[in-house]
Every structure is written in C-alpha cells, then in structure tokens.
Amino acid sequence: MREGNVQANVTHQSDAGVIEILGTLALRGVLIEVEPDFRARTGLSFVAGYKSTNAQLAAISAGATGDLAIMTRQGIDQLVGEGKIVAGSTADLARSGVGIAVRAGAPQPDISTPEAFKRTLLAAKSIAFSRIGASGIHFAEVIERLGIAAEVRRKATISDSYVGEFAARGEAELAVQQISELMPVAGIDIVGPLPGDLQKISVFSAGVFVAAKHPAGAAKLIAYLASPELVPILARKGLSPP
Q1: Please, which of 16, 51, 115, 181 could form a disulfide with 55 given CB 3.0 to 4.6 Å?
Q2: Is the pLDDT score of 11 beyond 90?
C-alpha cells in the first residue's frame, strides 16, 4: 500500500506484480471472497488495506498511494479533482445502507419508524458507532436531527473499526454501521436498516491512481468488481448493485 500501516492483506504473496488497493471497510468482505476467482481468471492478485473513506483520504493526503482506491463516490470524486485518480478510470461498484445490530440472541428493538428508532436510542444503555466513516458521520447527523445528540453521546462508544464487535462482546447494546460492515461480524444479529428518511444510501466506487505501478491490472480489477456477475456476492455481503 506504500504506507507505513497496512491494515490487512487479502493475500500474502510477494508485492511484485500485485495490485495494491486502498479500500473501504464496506467492500472488505467482497474483496476477500472474490480474490481467488479474480486470480484464477486473470493471473493477477491483489492486496488491500482497509480504513473508512475519510481515514483513507487523510492517508492519501499524507502521501499514501497504491494502484486503485475503493471508497465512497464523493471520496473518489475528490481524488479525481485533486489529480490523484485518473478521471476516466472510475466506476461505481455497490450501494449500502446504514443498519442497526444487537448481540446475537438479544431482544430486537423496534426501529420500524423514526419515532420508534428515537425511543430505542434513548432506551439503550450503550451505543457504538464509527468515528469518521460514512455511517458514523451520518448517524451523528441523525441524532442531531432527532434532538438527542447529547443523550446518545453520553453513552456512546465511538470507534474506527467494526463497531458490531462491541455488540458481540456485550460492550454496547446497539451497533450502528453500514450493513455491509455489520455482516462480517460474528456474534451479532442485524435488526435492520435505519427507518424512512433517516436512512442514507452510500455509493462505493473505484478509480485508478495516477501514480499506479500496475494501472492495467487495476483497470481489469475495477471492471471485474463492476461486473453484473458479482451481484449475488454483493447481496450476501449486505450490498446492492449501483
């Protein structure tokens, strides 16, 4: 990833000829599942480091680079505007909504309407959400809109990781994150998406870095990830096609 702290590798092969991805947590499950198939089809492999879009943008601003970036469409557009992503190389890959999870087997709260969701947030003893991820930023806006920001923040655990893990360990009664980021977490039940107009759908996109060492391979990977063939995999990971 050409940065000091690569968070996770999809493969453990030599870096020679390997496509390097600066990716979002939302697509981590998809990338892990498809890597063997992509390698079998193309002879190419890839590694990925996973952070929230805003964390990746900060890392890129500090000098991190790779062959391709996967993050929100807004993030990709920002990098195109900054001259760091090739404008004609981008493609939308998937959509995801924000959801709520509880510890596996725990009673599932009512989040069927905005008012029921507000009551559930007020009644919860503890809530986990992300700090700078798209879901966390949106949830911060939601609790402001509902007029309960101070109450929620007093009992909140705010993290840049998979916040469902706090619910799985019993450290948070509710976990709020992209549904695709909740689904990989063992030991939780997903209650459902945010209700009504409190929901926000994020589009995740990819683009080739101007400084890419393997631009042709990165372009092949983007085309593969944008293929309709991957729709069933997206669905299993809590995503939908763009």
Answers
A1: 51
A2: no
β strands within 68-133, DSSP E: 68-72, 91-96, 98-103, 127-130
**Residue 50 has what DSSP assignment?**
E
Structural contact between residues 70 and 221, judged by C-beta atoms closer than 8 angstroms:
no
Decide if 46 contacts 14 (C-beta within 8 A). Answer: no
CA 112 vs CA 94, 104, 109, 197: distances in Å: 25, 19, 9, 12
Residue ranges of domains in the chain, CATH in brackets: 19-95+201-236 (3.40.190.10), 98-198 (3.40.190.10)
Q: State the residue for tokens 């969701």.
A: 117
Residue 17 has what pLDDT? 75
Q: Are 188 and 164 in contact (CB under 8 A)?
A: yes
Please report where in the chains the tokens 């997206």 appear, as a residue: 234
pLDDT of 160 reads: 80
Rounded-to-integer distance, Cα 114 and Cα 175, Å: 17
pLDDT level of residue 132 (50, 70, 90 thresholds): confident
DSSP structure class, residue 173: S
pLDDT at 3: 41
Q: What is the distance, to the nearest Å, from the Cα of residue 4 to the centroid of all Cα atoms in its chain?
A: 21
User: What does the pLDDT read at residue 178?
Assistant: 93
